[in-house]
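Data deposition worksheet. Section B asks for the primary sequence of the deposited chain exactly as it was used as input, without tags or linkers unless they were present during the calculation. Section C holds the resulting structure in token form. Section D is free text for depositor observations; keep each observation to a single sentence. Incomplete worksheets are returned to the depositor.
Section A, Depositor: J.P.
Section B:
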Amino acid sequence: MTSDFRTHIPVGLFKGLLTHRLITVGVFFAALSLISLPGCARKEAIKPVSGVSGLTIERRILLGEGVSFGAAGSYETLTGKVHYVLDPEGEHNRRVTDARFAADADSLVRYSADIIIVKPTDTARGNGALLYHVVNRGNYDRRVLEAGPWTEVATSVCGSTERMGRLMKQGFTIVFSGWQDDILAENDRLRLYAPEALKNGSPMPGPVLAEIQTDSVEKIAYLGDSGHRAYPVDPVHAQKAEMRVHQTHADPGTLIERGSWSFARLDENSRVRPNSEHVYYPQGFEPFRFYTVRYRTHRSPLMSLCFPAVRDLVTFLTSADTLNPLLDANSECPIRWRLAYGSSQCGRFLRNFLYHGFNRGLDGRRVFDGMLPNVPGCRMGFFNYRHAQPSRAWGFYPNFDFPFTDFPTTDPVTGKAGGILQAVPDSFQPKIAYIHHSGEYWSSGAALTHTDVQGIEDIEIPPNVRIYTISGTAHGSAELAGGRPESAPGYYLPYNPNAAHFIEMPLLEALSRWVMFNQPPPPSSYPRIDRDELVAVEMFSFPTVPDVKAPVLVELHPRFDWGERFGQGILDNALPGIGPLYPNLVPVVGPDGNEVAGIRSPHVAVPVASYTGWNYPKGFDGVENTVASRLSGAWLPFCKDRREKISRGDSRKSLEELYKGSGDYLDRLRRYAEKLVDQGLMLAEDIDLILEQGGAMYDFVSSQGAWKKDSGFNEKAD
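Section C:
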């Protein structure tokens, strides 16, 4: 059941007139007539308070034709736009970079964002908790825009593979909203609509860096991140732009002659045409190398509004304002607890949100009571800066930047001191559960979230924080097909199929119980230096596996210098100066090639293969594979029997030596999974799926044996 209509009334304008329900068409036109009254006009002229100024609901969808999601009853989706007003001089807004340059004549900044709310039709039947799901580059679960698929979800057992349905059955209200202005209009992605920062009435100029990397030889490159709006080149300064080629991010690069490339692209007739958002390099960008283009732009949308947009929306949705669509039949807001979940880019967003002090709302309350930053590594993000590029996660951008830990530490190289939570008063600190995958240690410096900056010793973590490492996992995971991972043609080794969601979902639920009922979650579990579970990457040792060498060169993270105004959100050095490297510590593995610490999933604890947090890009061949891919992972099956093990020279025990047969393997797998359920680290509903996956992998390995180079093993399964 779907209805479409549009309403937009300033918050507080019709207190007592409007209820919590969506405004009907009749009431809407009555409200419009009131706006024209002299009294209302005078009220409109009053300077609004910072925060949400209005809410536009464009569509309402009753999910599953009203099917009940347990005690929470039926659910509906509301879609529309939220409208904001921000006072740049307000105490809580002073860390919003360049806000004063985007203000209107009344010194206030106005902007808006897309919003989706998934809520119980009767909000009083919910569990009193709001989960704000930070969208990754505008993406969200698009099923919430369809009425149909939810009947089956609501009436079936929900394990960790059905996160949305499971949360709904528990009564959560789930909110998505746009927070990036640079997202291109495609695929219904949620975005924020920011005003332009102006200087002397003209768009704010400044230096920008575009980093380019291709998988094949290309002559044309886009200056923006994929799927995002690029900063156009200022034609007045185009000839002063520089392009360099770099071997690594610790390499300042070699300057490429300016006359050998241009800001242009090819038209439909392959003719070169000037273009302000593309680079034309006739010689061709070579794969697996880094190119940077440093140029000057004349545009500066206020990307820094991302943090107040989330802060003010969550504050509004848990207020008693008459336009809050979450109010119950008594015009009261039933939301008591506020949680946030963000994965990858969005986990970095949450770390930044805390560090910059945005967990204090304009109403003086804590914004989020609990946070789960999933797989952020130790990284921050290119968010609250002039000419920010929020989706740039690597390279010469301010992502891998001190501080890394919650408690304060000191970098002996730079003398900087600080911590994520150092400037956050205790009353505004949420309960936090960080999750790392193995890939985050190899590519994103995850160890620096729980060691000192030198990587010499473990450090204490706050009592309101848990850190969980899910061992043997990549940033993502491959689907299984015929007992082996789906093909990953871009990688040298088969991709890691060990999915982390079996453990992530129970940890999210444990965080919610910690917030709502003060029930302690499982203790932190991550590799430590004092237990010999972490080692410098150059000292990492892997079992002997034919045609496989442990990575030697991983993502390098130097200390960058972006200039003196970096602390003010301004990068004077778009291509930063390069300083000494941060250390890179990775988890230790045992004789079977699997990590010895962290939360060991059933497939790692009862293995048929080695599950790694590293792999190699396909462009490098054979034993020369030493350059690890970012955030990747590999699956290296054991030999099927002792004969194969000896003939291949594989130091790991074979399948035959580990288990008496399929029945023995599956029995051990089940018992270990049941142990995780008892510890609150896995859902009982997922045991059968784990057994199905494990059985398929066991059968494949017992018949095919170990991975072999050039065997087509990593090609598409039949």
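Section D:
Residues 687-704 form the longest helix (18 residues).
The longest strand covers residues 51-62.
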